[in-house]
Specification:
By secondary structure, this protein is α/β, with parallel strands linked by helices. The protein contains seven helices and eleven strands. The protein has an eight-stranded mixed sheet with strand order 7-8-9-10-6-2-1-11, sandwiched between helices. A three-stranded mixed sheet has the order 4-3-5. Helix 1 packs across helix 7. It is globular and about 45 Å long.
């Protein structure tokens, strides 16, 4: 039976370390919802200086964290809801994350929002991006995670993320500036806490709740300090 792991922290490096920890130590299918405080999250292969105005981030006290998956740089805050889906695969069939993306789309439809999958990584509403996703494999385990913009401060993206053509002459994967929108514009009577609860009720159906214990915390703390608090690794 799938696990539903309660994630109650908003510390960006810790949350990303928790993802890697559970991916590498559990065999079950896992679902998570979580939020980060203000931060910039970059892809595993990105050129940090080309993607992020690190001086501005430092002056604002906004940490930059490198995740274990690919893709572009994104800005997180408490108006941004993150989801994680992990599973084991047998290597005999092509992995497909589309069923989980469609599950999210169906949940949004239940709430009155018509969304569609664009390519493998984006979910759009009326042509505007409300979710970007990324994935990675670790042995026979796969992770698919992404964002749901609910009431994020989208203006911060332009001030922290670099989009100049001159910045992408290195080997890092460049980000793509996309037109985005917040779901609260479509759900004006709902706040982010209620939105999270609506997602939790629907996504956790049929799952076994898992509460992070002291051993988990110790292992995640170790991984966090060894890896995730340094975006240059």
């Amino acid at each position: 039976m799938p696990l539903w792991i309660e994630m109650n922290r908003t510390d960006p490096p810790w949350n990303l370390a928790a993802e890697e920890y559970f991916l590498s130590t559990r065999d079950e299918t896992i679902f998570m919802l979580w939020r980060n405080s203000r931060s910039v999250i970059i892809g595993k292969n990105q050129d940090l200086e080309a993607e992020v105005d690190t001086d501005r981030a430092a002056s604002l006290g906004i940490p930059v964290v490198r995740r274990m998956t690919g893709g572009g740089a994104v800005f997180h805050d408490l108006g941004n809801v993150n989801f994680t889906y992990m599973f084991t695969f047998d290597g005999k069939h092509e992995m497909s994350f589309e069923p989980f993306a469609k599950l999210l789309i169906n949940v949004l439809a239940d709430l009155g929002v018509t969304a569609e999958l664009s390519g493998r990584n984006d979910i759009l509403v009326k042509g505007k991006k409300i979710s970007g996703c990324a994935h990675a494999c670790l042995g026979n385990r796969a992770i698919y995670h992404g964002t749901l913009l609910f009431s994020a401060d989208v203006s911060q993206m332009e001030g922290l993320l670099r989009f100049s053509e001159e910045k992408y002459r290195g080997r890092g994967i460049r980000s793509v500036s996309s037109r985005v929108t917040n779901l609260n514009e479509l759900l004006p009577d709902m706040d982010v806490e209620r939105f999270i609860e609506e997602l939790r009720v629907r996504l956790s159906e049929g799952c076994t709740p898992y509460v992070i214990n002291a051993d988990d915390v110790a292992a995640i703390d170790k991984l966090c300090y060894e890896k995730y608090r340094n975006p240059r690794l």
